[in-house]
Amino acid sequence: MTTSSSSSSASHNAPHSALPRIAVLATGGTIAGSAQDATSTAGYQAGVVGVGQLLAAVPALSTLANIHAEQVASIDSKDMSLALWTTLAQRVNKLLASDDIDGIVITHGTDTLEETAYLLHLTVKSAKPVVLTAAMRPSSALSADGPLNLLNAVSVAAHRAAHGQGVLVAFNNRIHSARDVVKTSTFAVDAFQSPEVGALGWVQDGRVEFQRRVVRPHTTATEFAIEATANDAWPAVEIVTSYAGVTRVMVDALVKDGVRGIVVAGTGNGSIHVSLQQGLADAVAQGIAVVRASRVGSGHVMHNGAASDDALGFVSANALNAYKARVLLMLALAAGNPARAALQDVFDLY
Questions:
Q1: Closest CA to 218 of 178, 160, 182
Q2: Which UniProt keywords apply (predicted)?
Q3: Residue span of the structural domain in which 155 resides
Q4: How many other CB atoms sit within 10 Å of the CB of residue 39?
Q5: Domain co-membership, 56 together with 132
Q6: Would residue 241 show up in a list of annotated catalytic residues for this protein?
Q7: Looking at 110, 219, 222, 229, which residue is catalytic?
Q8: pTM of whole model > 0.90?
Q9: 166 and 35 belong to one structural domain
């Protein structure tokens, strides 16, 4: 895969040997957004403020770390692409392999932050901290939340307790695991939550405290490498939703188009309308992987065993929502785990 995004770098402050060395990778988003009216938090252009300006708005960063800054992309994260995922993951791994970098902060749009975070959680090959942050208000807005979120993210990335925790999200004074976190509001500054298990900890005024640690395998403990999905090798995986009166038209069209996997956002505990279920069962018969997730905001999709999943050839997504389930399914298929039993093992593990 190729990407048109360019990468540039800058040094934010003079080196101080006692401070950790943190790379800040900017990708755009609302945190880098700007509007003509300071009272506007919706009518703005995302990704137009450069990483240098973002850092200059938070002079206290110089007391926390030696900052290495790069502009990896300048997009609205609704337009995140697989090619940019490849570029970002490879850049993160290259930086973390250097003795000159102690941790990474990524500024990102909120719309697809949870997907990017989970992708990196599964493919980063280092125990060094990687922390994503974002904003719900553009940089030009009254009470913009981006500067404080950025300060807190650097605080977390520079803290020894963040090592070995996988990819983290620092937002509105809370620290979340990439696996658990989801966006839960279209407008509130407290837009990210971990509904099932809660936040890992909190960060405020430079103090970082973890209440628990991540227990599922991640980063160096996974079988996934982003190189396996480069050069247009991302398996085609799409998402469909079950709802009242749904038909199998979407599934049949995807099968015809040659997808390798389908994630279904079912009702309740991943239940699927009978018409859609038959279409998905027919897709399985043609060698397409089907994963059951839920359109509900929290909870687990339990494996139904012989009564349903085993008979139909479906995989249950555990506590992953449909969007994160798609990320894991793409990586699992790219890693050579197409069989249903092997895929269920992957979803039970990660």
A1: 178
A2: Hydrolase
A3: 8-220
A4: 9
A5: yes
A6: no
A7: 110
A8: yes
A9: yes
